[in-house]
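Q: Sequence in, structure out?
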Amino acid sequence: MNRLTSTDPARCPKCGHHQTLVTRYCESCGFDRHQAVGEGAAGGFSGIFRSARTRAKLTVAVLAAITLVYVLTAFHHVSGFDLVSRADLGILTPGEVTVFDDVTQILAVAYLLAFLASAVAFLAWLSRSVDNVPPLTGQVPRSTPRWSIGWWFVPIANFVMPYLVVRDLLVRLRGTDGGPIWVLLAWWVAWLGTTLASLVVASIRGPNTLAELNTWFSVNLAADLAGATAAVLAIVVVRGIQTLADQRASSPIS
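A: Exactly. Output:
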């Protein structure tokens, strides 16, 4: 038998009774916990509650970091308009161009590192959160923990399915208490906007004129603002869903 801490309660999936010691049978209703675990594992779920709180905190931290990178990059791209104006007036110096390019490279590396960290942290949190739904009596989600990650890498489907996975998670945890569905939708729209703007930027072949350079800065700025918005809304979504999970884990079922 293993003694649990107060942050990882032994909750009976059937009656909601909390036990200090984990045993096979619930001391309140006699429910067979091993049977519940077996059923969950057979469907791609562990059937065991493991708090995702630490993963949520890490996810929020790296999302805050990438938000900062987006904001700094946005300011940098705004300064690019001034660079174009100075070039148009014929007063732009080679030193200014060199400094601008150096800052661009630094921000690009910072973005890459922040993006990879936030992606890994978010998917790890999402997978654990989805796996926790059955033990938290939210029934079985439509996607397994593995597919909650996998859908992000399936072309075309990744424009819709990841949103449906997170929405299903939120709906199952919130029950009849309501929830920030509009925030979830806003986050997804902002994320799609960031993705589309990034694709447009990638399709622009090295601007050759000042007008094209202005357009390039404009599209990049739009991507930066959409990305910062998506990151902030993602923080709200993660914290909201984690709060619902924590509440279910610490409160008995009525």
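Residues 1-9, 36-40 have pLDDT under 50 and may be disordered.
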